[in-house]
Amino acid sequence: MNQKRSVAIQRLFAAMSGAIFLGGFTGMGVAQEPNVAWTEGPDTVKLGENIAELALSADHIFAGGDDTRKLMEMMGNSVSGQEVGIVSPKAENQDWFMIFEYAPEGYVKDDDKDAIDKDAILKSYQEGTEEANKTRKEKGISGLHVVGWYEEPHYDERTHNLVWAILAKDDGGGQVVNYNVRLLGREGYMSATLVDDPSRLATSKGEIDRIISAFSYKQGKRYAEWLPGDKVAKYGLAALVAGGAGAAAVKLGFFAAFLKFAAKAWKLLVVAALAIVAAIKKGISALRGRGAEA
Predict the structure, then answer these.
(1) Residue whose C-alpha is closest to residue 280's, from 100, 24, 63
(2) Predicted confidence (pLDDT) at residue 240 exceeds the cutoff of 70
(3) Domain positions in the chain
(4) Span 3-291: which CATH code?
(5) Are 41 and 59 in contact (CB under 8 A)?
(6) pLDDT value at 44 more than 60
(7) Residue 170: what pLDDT?
(8) Would you say residue 158 has pLDDT above 90?
(9) Sequence-separated (6 or more) residues with CB below 8 Å from residue 153
(10) Which end of the chain is more exposed for a tag (fewer CB within 10 A), N or C?
């Protein structure tokens, strides 16, 4: 990425630090200007240390785990420490972003692929989000409400990918979709989370599929390479949908534990969208405009 674009990014993020996003996101302090090392495609980028890689296309940009955490922290969001990268498009008519996180939880068995209780999980999301709104209110952040499934959970036995999407809205009526993919591996799973406006997701969906198709685990890390004696996760697919990174809470009691966990891990659903989506969407959009002048 040329120097002019790098300077543009730094100016944009500095300017966005004090902004109000999605009609009611307030209470953030002024963030320090982040120094983000963006990689422009086409290129092959690594996701974690010897875990997976992504064949980045010419119309996408990428930043690694450390920079992903910088972006999230700049906007006042907690980080899991599992972030391994972020992808965003260059196209002016696309403003989504996708965050990758890797959880080395062990091999997730897919025995329960036909027993995912979609209604019960949706209810847990809704109740957990309303509980988490108490924390959001204390932070001066607009409430968030899960409307329903944008895409119901489904599992692809061929690719070992688990997909679902949630539609949510904030107190001001602004809507956002949190689109989730869990790419199962031998030693854990990679989370790919995309946040976008529902009116544009139909277009973004094609980009999601392209990126996921360009993802691959390193040799020895693939789901099909599991061997007896390897670590096995203590939960299955249903728990991944219900809690994501908080799925380990299943040991305390499936849905009850999730509700307890949600108050602390409020970014599990779409809270990251309220803080990050406007920053990256506005920042990358403006960057593209300046880049055209480079």
Answers:
(1) 63
(2) yes
(3) 3-291
(4) 3.40.1000.10
(5) yes
(6) yes
(7) 85
(8) yes
(9) 116, 118, 121, 162, 163, 164, 237, 241
(10) C
